[in-house]
């Protein structure tokens, strides 16, 4: 079970991921924030305590891999989970080099993503 004081930020251009994870996240009891643009994600990270970010790789709006570095600059120890619709080993390698917690290809299913989120939230409660 996830500690109730944990906050998860889902940053994605639509609401597909937040809708898919909604019932499970409600059961975990953690607070969920949503951002539909990279700018909104940055604002949320500057104004609120967030334990874990789940961010769609396409959200970076031309910033490519710099968005992860900016997020790490705002919150050095923040655990970042990147989701993507495309299984691209080159992209995965570049993103992993930025020090993310987990890289998830959406077509692989939700179980692994839910496990990664749960593990990340538990890890931040230590």
Fold and architecture overview:
The chain has 126 residues and is an alpha/beta fold. The protein has a single domain (7-124), classed as 3-Layer(aba) Sandwich (Rossmann fold). Helices cover 43% and strands 20% of the residues. The chain has helices at residues 16-28, 38-47, 66-74, 89-96, 111-124, and strands at residues 7-11, 31-35, 52-56, 79-84, 102-105. The chain has a five-stranded parallel beta sheet, with helices on both faces. Strand 4, helix 4 and strand 5 form a beta-alpha-beta unit. It is globular, with a radius of gyration of 13 Å. The model has no long low-confidence stretch (mean pLDDT 89).
Structural class: alpha/beta
Spell out the helices and strands N to C.
EHEHEHEHEH
Tell me the CATH superfamily. Answer: Response regulator
Strands in their spatial order, largest beta sheet: 2-1-3-4-5
Q: What fraction of the residues are assigned to beta strands by DSSP? A: 15-25%
How many strand units? 5
Helical run tally: 5
- The total number of structural domains is 1
Chain-averaged pLDDT: 89
Helix content: 40-55%
Would you identify the regions where 5 or more consecutive residues have pLDDT less than 50? Answer: none
How does CATH name the architecture?
3-Layer(aba) Sandwich
Shape: globular
